[in-house]
Amino acid sequence: xxxxxxxxxxxxxxxxxxxxxxxxxxxxxxxxxxxxxxxxxxxxxxxxxxxxxxxxxxxxxxxxxxxxxxxxxxxxxxxxxxxxxxxxxxxxxxxxxxxxxxxxxxxxxxxxxxxxxxxxxxxxxxxxxxxxxxxxxxxxxxxxxxxxxxxxxxxxxxxxxxxxxxxxxxxxxxxxxxxxxxxxxxxxxxxxxxxxxxxxxxxxxx
Length: 206
Ligand SMILES: C[S@@+](CC[C@H](N)C(=O)[O-])C[C@H]1O[C@@H](n2cnc3c(N)ncnc32)[C@H](O)[C@@H]1O
Known about the structure:
Layout: H1 2-5, E1 11-14, E2 24-27, H2 30-37, E3 43-46, H3 55-64, H4 74-84, E4 89-94, E5 104-106, E6 120-124, E7 140-143, E8 153-157, E9 160-164, H5 168-175, H6 182-185, H7 191-205
Parallel strand pairs: 1-2, 3-4, 7-9
Antiparallel strand pairs: 4-6, 5-6, 8-9
Helix pairs in contact: 2-4
The structure holds S-adenosylmethionine.
């Protein structure tokens, strides 16, 4: 949605059905689709699954000595993006702890989502800029993750309340999204993030 708002014509690819996806959609393996169609696009954004790198997985490993295995697709995604075409601009998004060549970190509070706790890292082959984190100026933060929106407190950081959203509606409001289910929104990044990047890419593409 953010790239659309920045002026791009958007096509989405996922190997699972995404019935609420608001643009042209192809159900396909992302790497296969890239090798077949990658050169047809000016910009390719990839958000590979992040579960292999999250802090939550490390907590499970520390407590139980074991945690579910998740595919590590970042290196393969980067290689496929680089192989598409010399001129294709790419962006890869993921979480802290992932093996990205992180160029910028986006913070919801810096982009008009004052309470959202959702820092995300971005790698790109064009130069990107980011405003600094603004979380310290807010009284509380809200996370959008986990199996359900139960409002549970997750931590106190600098004496500020951090909790999970207590309803889908609250999560949608905090993320600036009104079409996703809970399962979908926990996997997503806010449209303001991709709009912010998309406007820079438009400039870079002239
Ligand atoms: C972090 S989510 C990104 C979701 C989406 N980009 C968004 O912001 O709402 C990762 C997505 O990758 C999809 N996925 C995982 N492996 C894939 C593959 N090999 N090919 C295509 N999609 C894949 C998952 O189904 C999941 O929807």
